[in-house]
From TrEMBL:
Keywords: Oxidoreductase. This is Lactate dehydrogenase. It comes from the Bacteria. It comes from Teichococcus rhizosphaerae. Residues 1-24 are annotated as: Disordered. Gene3D superfamilies: 1.10.1530.10, Hypothetical oxidoreductase yiak, domain 2 (3.30.1370.60). It holds the Pfam family Ldh_2.
């Protein structure tokens, strides 16, 4: 089994610096235009608004691979019926603190935000709430969700898997079986929250495709060719090769074990996954929200996490590193800058939206002056 170019699950998102000289756009105007496009394609207004919010929030945080650049693919799936638009998830089980949904291929951003809101509501009663979703459409940038929970003094852990993707080799194998299997988490520290968004694979399908377009190679041998030889050539991923798990050739058992855990939480607990022959862009999701007040209390929690965060930031940087940052610090700083100065979209994003906007008679926002 190998990855399929153009359709393989995209893996986790990484914040990138705003393109130098790129035009900036008002975030609210982008949300409005994206919601209007989704609504014109048949999405109910409430779903369209949440889908737009998730994509624009990703661009605000610098996760440009999972922002508005995904909108054309989402609309393509809406038109083909790969993404369904009407109705609610099917409730498989609901025990208050444990919930399982069949997502019915509904928009992943809307489903996951709905799950997060439900968990944040119930966690005040139960202390911890876990929700598993099977058969969801792609959920976008994972960091968006735990960042929202952490801002409310809660801990959020989120795993996502793509049971229709098989681009990542188990440790010791040369054949792709698993997906990049990203996870994200967020928690308060009393100051800047920690928000991580990481992948169980050493790189992702999306990064491989980007390097191919740019005519570049990986900095190290992160992939295997069809014969199992280590390579830095991204093309081999789509020529019968595979991506290595996090930890690479020497310590890939770490990413391998993590991937198996993510797939167990997302597919095993939801009851829907690889065993069912899932399609690409479909996702399994596991979301857990924890209220520190149900344990030693939020103050005690932030005393510990704040102390460790401060110690990490104060640690002497190694040569070539200006300062030590917390996970997610860069993305959160970019979000504040983008809110103040406008969102700098990745090259080609607005060009990709124009044909869709023209077809549906939607006006796209103009760049901000300056």
């Amino acid at each position: 089994m190998t990855a399929q170019a153009g359709t393989a699950h995209r893996g986790h998102a990484s914040p990138e610096p705003s393109p130098a000289g790129a035009p900036r756009y008002d975030a609210e105007a982008l949300r409005g235009a994206a919601a209007a496009l989704f609504a014109a394609a048949g999405a109910p207004a409430a779903k369209a608004a949440v889908m737009a919010e998730v994509l624009v929030e990703s661009d605000l945080m610098g996760h440009i691979t999972h922002g508005l650049g995904l909108l054309p693919k989402y609309m393509e799936d809406m038109a083909s019926g790969t993404m369904t638009l009407e109705g609610e998830p099917e409730v498989i089980a609901d025990r208050g603190a444990c919930v399982t949904w069949d997502g019915r291929a509904l928009p992943g951003g809307w489903l996951t935000m709905k799950a997060l809101d439900l968990a944040m509501e119930r966690v005040k009663t139960h202390g911890t709430v876990s929700i598993a979703i099977g058969n969801s459409h792609h959920i976008g940038c994972l960091a968006v969700y735990p960042a929202k929970a952490a801002a409310r003094g809660l801990v959020c852990i989120l795993h996502s898997s793509a049971p229709g993707a098989s681009s990542v080799a188990p440790f010791g194998a040369r054949q792709g079986v698993l997906a990049p299997d990203p996870m994200a988490a967020g928690f308060p520290t009393g100051g800047t929250p920690v928000v991580l968004d990481i992948s169980a694979s050493i790189t992702t399908n999306n990064m491989s495709q980007r390097l191919i377009r740019q005519g570049e190679r990986f900095p190290h041998k992160w992939v295997l060719d069809a014969e199992g030889n280590p390579s830095d050539d991204p093309n081999v991923v789509f020529q019968g090769g595979a991506i290595l798990p996090a930890g690479g050739l020497d310590h890939g058992q770490k990413g391998y074990g993590w991937a198996l855990l993510t797939e167990a939480l997302t597919q095993g607990l939801s009851g829907h996954g690889r065993a069912d022959g899932a399609r690409n862009m479909m996702a399994g999701v596991f979301l857990q929200v924890i209220d520190p007040e149900a344990f030693a209390g939020l103050g005690a929690f932030e005393r510990q996490t704040g102390h460790t965060a401060a110690a990490c930031r104060a640690a002497a940087p190694r040569p070539g590193v200006a300062r030590v940052r917390l996970p997610g610090e860069k993305g959160l700083a970019q979000r504040e800058e983008a809110r103040a100065r406008g969102v700098a979209l990745a090259p080609g994003v607005m060009e990709g939206l124009r044909p869709l906007a023209g077809r549906h008679g939607i006006a796209l926002p103009e760049p901000l002056p300056g």
